[in-house]
Design brief:
Elements lengths: L6 H9 L6 H18 L1 H4 L22 H10 L22 H15 L8 H7 L1
The structure holds heme C.
The site of heme C has 23 residues, from helix 3, helix 4 and helix 5.
Keywords: Heme, Iron, Metal-binding, Signal
GO molecular function: electron transfer activity; heme binding; metal ion binding
Organism: Microbulbifer hydrolyticus
Length: about 130
Amino acid sequence: MKRTLSIGTLFATLSLGAVASEQETRDLIGFGALTFADNCMKCHKIDGYGEEALYPSLRDPALLANKKLLIDTLLHGRSAPRRNGGEEDLMPPRDYLTDREIAAIIAFISNTWGDEVLLVSEEEIKAAR
Ligand code: HEC
């Protein structure tokens, strides 16, 4: 079931200097859920498990804590062959998404399937484009 945002997570986030109130973070996660449904769910599925040999599972806390990898994968897609040698089907770039949409998706997937919510600033995304 969906985990709710813990206060501990928020304090950890705030102490890193991100300026987001609890309400703003909740709004971002909610927006991220909708954006994920429209742009990612077709392949990675509603539960994030993907589809074996075709689309990788996103339910991996290490992956969901890796800011750079997430931003780069969403903006530029993946052109490398599948790590497990499965059928080759690459991740298409999602660079048509706005900076806020990408930040929201990352907040949603990390909060839902990772160890803690990962907040990425729109500036960080802009810089990686
Ligand atoms: C058309 C299908 C498709 C869509 C749509 C799609 N992906 Fe992917 N995604 C893939 C495939 C295939 C891979 C594996 C690429 C590879 O490593 O070869 C992948 C890889 C990834 C990875 C890296 C996984 C890892 O273990 O390294 C992340 C993160 C990811 N996708 C997130 C997303 C998000 C978030 C969205 C929506 C914005 C999205 N994807 C939309 C097909 C898709």
